[in-house]
Amino acid sequence: MTVKVKKTSKTKEKVIDAAAYLFNTKGFDGTSVREIARKADVNVANISYYFDNKAGLLEYLVSSFLDGYTSVIEHAYVELDSRSARECLLMFIKNIMNYQKDNNQLARCVLREITLDSVLIREVLTTYMTKEKFYIKSILETGIHQQEFRKLLIPHTIMQLKGMLTMPYLHPQYMTEVLHVMPNETYFTDQYVKELERWVNLTICLPLEKSFISTRTTK
Amino acid sequence: MTVKVKKTSKTKEKVIDAAAYLFNTKGFDGTSVREIARKADVNVANISYYFDNKAGLLEYLVSSFLDGYTSVIEHAYVELDSRSARECLLMFIKNIMNYQKDNNQLARCVLREITLDSVLIREVLTTYMTKEKFYIKSILETGIHQQEFRKLLIPHTIMQLKGMLTMPYLHPQYMTEVLHVMPNETYFTDQYVKELERWVNLTICLPLEKSFISTRTTK
Which domains does chain A have, with CATH numbers? Predict the structure, then answer.
């Protein structure tokens, strides 16, 4: 499943790419609209036309990334009707990793922005992040209820999961320069998804063998 | 073990606390030296005296936080001589969580800054982060060698570990407002450390029972 963030026009697309790149290297406050226009090779007037100003552009980046993000996780949540909680959780992990890989400049910019305490981010927390929590929580609770998952502390599990999923895209520079891993390559995501699958099987799921051992012992 | 970042004078301490707070709410570029001086209730001249300018202040925040951080992990690494790799890894996890809790404003500011692509951060990556990688890698490799740990992919495991450890302190607002968890309370760290201990025991360590089962089966 490949979800690319919607970019309606060529000019808009160029502005979005340039802005995400500049915000990642120089920070939001360190970047001017003029620089974005130069980098995108468009008129400053184009930016005003599409996004009003720099704040409007940032808001657009954040909400378009998170719209796609939320739809990916909603997709896994909806599958709870026909699949096990474990399968839904693994589907979520795989699709979110690919979504971040496919939109890596934007992912980095938005994941970084979310750590700041601003009016925009307060809104994001009460909308997108609350929705995200609802979906993950539902998957985890279903798994616990159906005795597929251990009795987990939901917030702590969400925290661990989100930490592991965002790490490669929030810190691409650390990834490439210290760990020598390329988070934007399919090879990496495939391998990392397998690692997270091991985490799900061993730490989240109830052990199958253990229940087998205990039945043998009690007989 | 409580390690507090060294603050040599009362004035310096007030400036550091004010700067960390303002950088977290308004961002580095969005904060002026004048605002820091006002918040810290000191003279602008004091800031120039101790830190030169805003960049010097940021550099001081980053390096003093990471000095303490590195000493915490070095402490766990040194214990490899007398303890098992599992014990060293658990000691590292517990002490880093407490270190971040005890310096939470600073932790948030530095963890956030590290995601940016700047000259300062490039230096941090080649010094502190490379050292940190060496220590964690050594602990993991010792555990693998002594057949206490599974055959892990080292960079991927470091990534997961760091993701889980930094999440509560990089995103305190998300923690409190969406997950309703207080990352700066001892109660939280104790509980979260237990969760991570479970991860170490189940996902990192080789299962003890399994080897027991297989010996029984082969008999």
Answer: 7-52 (1.10.10.60), 58-218 (1.10.357.10)
Residue A179 and residue B158: Cβ atoms within 8 Å?
Answer: yes
Please state, in angstroms and rounded to a whole number, the distance separating the CA atoms of residues A174 and A182: 10
Instruction: Dig out the tokens for A51 from the structure.
Output: 């996004």
| Contacts with B57 (C-beta within 8 Å, 6 or more apart), sequence order | B15, B16, B19, B33, B36, B47, B51
Closest chain B residue to A158, measured at CA = B179
Instruction: Give chain A's length.
Output: 219
- Structure tokens belonging to residue B117: 């692509």
pTM of the prediction? 0.88
Q: Which candidate in B171, B175, B176, B204 is best for mutational testing of the A interface (most A CBs within 10 A)?
A: B171
- Please tell me which of the candidates A112, A121, A180 has its beta carbon nearest to residue B115: A112
pLDDT tens-digit map of A95-147: 999 999 999 999 999 999 898 888 888 999 999 999 999 999 999 999 999 99
Reported ipTM: 0.87
| Residue numbers in A near B131 (CB within 8 A) | none
* CB-CB contact of A32 with B121 (8 Å): no
